[in-house]
Amino acid sequence: MEAIEKLATLGTDETTRRPSREPRIHGWPGWLVGLMVFAGSFLFRFLDPYFYNDHFLWISGGRQVLVYGELPFRDFFDPGYFLQHLASAGSQRVFGYNLLGEALLSISLLSAGTAITFMLSSRISRSYAIGLLAAALVVGMYPRLYNYHKVFFLAFGLLVLWRYLDRPTTWNLVLVGLTTAVAFLFRHDNGLYMALPVVVVIVAAHWNDWGRLLRRAALYAASAILPLLPFFVFLELNGGVVAYFSSGAEWALQRRGTVAPWPTFTADASAPLSIFQPANAFVWLYALFITLPCLTLLVLACQHVRWRRVAATPPEAIKILPAAILCAVSAPLLLRTPLEARLADVVAPTAVIGAWLLGQWFGPIRWQETLARSRQPRSGPSPTLLRQVTVASLPTAFRSITAVAIVGITSISVATAGELQERLEESAIFDGPTAVLDRGEEVFDQLRESPPDRELYPGDNELRLARYVRECTQPDDRLLVTSFAPQLYFYSGRAAAGGAIQVDATAEQQAEYLASVPGEPVPVVIAGEEEDGDYFESTFETIEDYLRENYRVALQLDPGDDDPSYRVLVHKQRVPSGVYRRWSLPCYR
Question: pTM, whole model, 2 decimals?
Answer without folding.
Answer: 0.86
